[in-house]
Amino acid sequence: MILTRLDALTVYRVHTPKWAFAPTSGAGAAQHGGRANRPGLAALSAVRTADPTGAGP
Known about the structure:
Layout: H1 27-32
């Protein structure tokens, strides 16, 4: 596991309306598991650019 401090970094995150009440909880990933976590482990995915091509700054 890599922990990173993101004080001065802006990141973007997309979530489904089902989790809109707690967009930074990681509860959906903990409930079902995902690409980077097993069930029971909360995780968040974020990107540094909102550009879908990834060509941002």
